[in-house]
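sorry for the late reply, my laptop died twice this morning and i had to redo everyting from scratch. anyway the thing you sent over, i finally got around to it. pasting the sequence first so we're on the same page, its 300 residues, then the predicted structure underneath. double check i copied it right bc i was rushing
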Amino acid sequence: MQKPTLLILAAGMASRYGSLKQIQQFGPGGETIMDYSLYDAIRAGFGKVVFIIRKEFEQDFKDIFEPKLKGKVEVAYVFQELSDIPGEFALPADRVKPWGTAHAMLCAEQVVREPFIVINADDFYGRDAFEKAYQFLQTEVSPHQYAIVGWELVKTLSEYGSVSRGVCTVDGNNNLTSITERTKIYPENGKIFYEDGEGKHEAPLDAKVSMNFWCFDPSVFEVTKQQFVSFLREHIHEQKSEFFIPLVADEYIRAGQGTVKLVPTSSQWFGVTYKEDAPFVKNSIDKLVASGEYPAKLWP
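ok and here's the structure:
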């Protein structure tokens, strides 16, 4: 059976960190958050990793990751470029912003032929998420069945301010029916609240949210290409318009092309939404290392 692929969205990392060599280290051996995703994917059974990056950082990525990954997993690099759009369109001269996560995924079409997952480079997802995704890709994925890994909302919050999360709604078969973006979610007195134009509302503690961890069959590339053409026809001259993976999934469901299963995970999600989150992330990883979940040095 084909080993699935891990696709990492990392084209935006340079803008966030200034230089790849400045990626924040959280693990006791100097590991970044991305190192833990790579480690979890490899031990879950993934056979290839594809980094989606900017061309000018190719050598940086090779210098950082190839010594760690050599002999453990196949590695490929894909470049997300603004000019990589269908030939019937001309790139607007004033376009600076990348086209979004779905466009980034589409850039990998030529190197991904097997079932795969897509994740963010700078989110800590946890071992359980990768194992659940691997199982889905080995036994259930098809052109008519994709999946999203869903986190318990309470395990994705920050103590230092509100966060934005895509709250998932499912049907009786645990298939996704919608993802509603909530832009101001925060804990308060043991409960979770979100605010919108109509005021303050309580959210269920066990609500499932998307952290941009998707499981796809390679057929998603054709689905995405068709939708990207439609997106460009409507939005190409909007400087800040972006083509996101949840938009692709939503249209895929709405058009009756297939279903997107919600695969729940018990993992704790970590991310640095606020600079004050960094000590929490480091402490959480230290605890996982102390418990034996990860070795003190991931890459001997």
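The radius of gyration is 19 Å.
thats about all i looked at so far, will dig more tmrw
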